[in-house]
């Protein structure tokens, strides 16, 4: 008797063995505890992270206060788990560390070498690295659009690689700029997230990193053409701001910013801003697909909806943390947790906007074009809170005037 002809009603069904080309990724179904799934490469990466932090503490501890050291120590397990969960970020971390240390070695304590040493002048000084970042983001945008419009996997792949390279150069630029600030003077040295020039770089990098994660997670590069548009817009502003206001020059911190709170409040804020910007551009892709524009080249509406939701959820969580940290900082700096300063008021408006979006999503099942339009409108509100307040209003937070 041919057992393959036995019906499922007469015997338990057995799953057929999938061909090798169709076999699922067994790692996704591994039910062992997470730590037991780690291999030797994972633990070597963790060891490298610990060794790197130890080197930084031993070499640069005179420039660190108690809070700097605490942030560095706490960052190690965070980046360790990030590298375990998202393996493509490992070479990025290694590259940032290697190029930053190379730049520091070439400087050898002399800031004037930025104009004389070849690699500093054209690649590794903060201004050079950030210029490379800017150019790579713009070219990445072009290649993503070439890939999308011509259905060319090669074009999109080049755009993706350029985005990774831009993120590498951008973070190197920030790390080297941090070092350069101390070469100007010990009293000038500070983490480079204190003015519009620096935070626009940070915004571009965070938005790109979140996009690259979703690109890999959903195995699609079609969204790069849309997300890189907002990053290129930020780069365009950055270039204008540099030329018109000479904003790339490193300036001493104003007294109110000379606080360790800045080192955690600002990054948390811009993780929120970057996630909100990404969700808005995914909303644009959703609206385009729904109207039949590039519909056969974009991911399914369900995928776009999921990316939009996850981006807003992550952004809202970090923006909430940033708002709480900002209130604690305000209490220390100005003696009160909240003063209805224009920046605080608009931050509250942004928070309420996305809180309402999430409430409608979770409680009322918000989906479709309404959710996409709302996410896009949220970007306009967020942009005004981020930039418009500095342009048109004044208050306690007026540190980044145009």
What report would you give on this structure?
- It is a multi-pass membrane protein.
- The chain crosses the membrane at residues 40-60, 66-84, 91-109, 129-150, 162-179, 191-214, 226-244, 264-288, 309-331, 343-360, 372-393.
- InterPro entries: Cyt_c_assembly, Cyt_c_biogenesis_CcsA, Cyt_c_biogenesis_CcsA/CcmC.
- Residues 1-23 are annotated as: Disordered.
- The protein is mainly alpha-helical and 402 residues long.
- Among the domains are: 38-87; 260-402, Four Helix Bundle (Hemerythrin (Met), subunit A).
- It has twelve helices and no strands.
- The chain has helices at 40-60, 66-85, 89-107, 118-124, 126-150, 153-184, 196-217, 224-245, 262-290, 301-334, 342-364, 368-392.
- It is globular.
- The chain starts with 39 loop residues before the first helix and ends in a 10-residue tail after the last helix.
What is the tally of helical segments? 12
Count of beta strands: 0
Main sheet, how many strands, which sense, barrel?
none
- What is the CATH architecture descriptor of the domain at 260-402? Up-down Bundle
What is the subunit arrangement here? single chain
Q: Residue ranges: pLDDT <50 for 5 or more in a row?
A: 1-27
Q: What overall geometry do the principal axes of the alpha carbons give?
A: globular
Helix/strand class: mainly alpha
Keywords:
single chain, 402 residues, mainly alpha, Four Helix Bundle (Hemerythrin (Met), subunit A), 12 helices, globular
């Amino acid at each position: 008797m041919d057992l393959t002809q036995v019906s499922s009603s007469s015997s338990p069904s057995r799953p057929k063995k999938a061909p090798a080309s169709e076999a699922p990724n067994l790692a996704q179904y591994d039910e062992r505890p997470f730590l037991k799934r780690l291999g030797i490469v994972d633990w070597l990466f963790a060891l490298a992270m610990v060794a790197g932090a130890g080197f930084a503490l031993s070499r640069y501890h005179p420039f660190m206060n108690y809070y700097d050291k605490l942030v560095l120590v706490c960052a190690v397990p965070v980046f360790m788990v990030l590298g375990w969960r998202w393996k493509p970020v490992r070479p990025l971390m290694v590259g940032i560390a290697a190029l930053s240390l190379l730049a520091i070695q070439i400087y050898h304590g002399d800031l004037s070498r930025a104009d004389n040493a070849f690699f500093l002048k054209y690649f590794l000084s903060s201004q050079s690295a950030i210029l490379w970042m800017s150019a790579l983001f713009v070219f990445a945008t072009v290649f993503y659009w070439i890939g999308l419009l011509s259905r060319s996997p090669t074009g999109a792949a080049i755009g993706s690689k350029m985005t990774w390279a831009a993120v590498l150069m951008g973070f190197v630029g920030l790390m080297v700029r941090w070092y350069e600030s101390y070469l100007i003077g010990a009293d000038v040295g500070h983490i480079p997230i204190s003015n519009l020039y620096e935070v626009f770089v940070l915004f571009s990098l965070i938005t790109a990193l979140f996009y690259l994660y979703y690109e890999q997670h959903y195995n699609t590069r079609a969204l790069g053409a849309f997300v890189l548009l907002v990053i290129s817009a930020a780069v365009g502003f950055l270039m204008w701001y540099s030329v018109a206001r000479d904003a790339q020059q490193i300036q001493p911190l104003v007294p109110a910013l000379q606080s360790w709170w800045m080192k955690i409040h600002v990054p948390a804020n811009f993780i929120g801003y970057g996630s909100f910007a990404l969700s808005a551009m995914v909303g644009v892709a959703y609206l385009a697909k729904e109207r039949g524009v590039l519909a056969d080249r974009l991911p399914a509406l369900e995928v776009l909806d999921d990316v939009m939701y996850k981006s807003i959820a992550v952004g809202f969580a970090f923006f909430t943390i940033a708002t709480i940290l900002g209130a604690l900082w305000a209490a220390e700096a100005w003696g009160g947790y909240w003063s209805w300063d224009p920046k605080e008021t608009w931050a509250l408006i942004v928070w309420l906007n996305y809180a309402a979006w999430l409430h409608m999503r979770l409680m009322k099942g918000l989906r479709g074009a309404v959710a996409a339009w709302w996410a896009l409108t949220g970007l306009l509100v967020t942009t005004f809170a981020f930039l418009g307040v500095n342009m048109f209003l004044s208050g306690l937070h007026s540190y980044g005037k145009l």
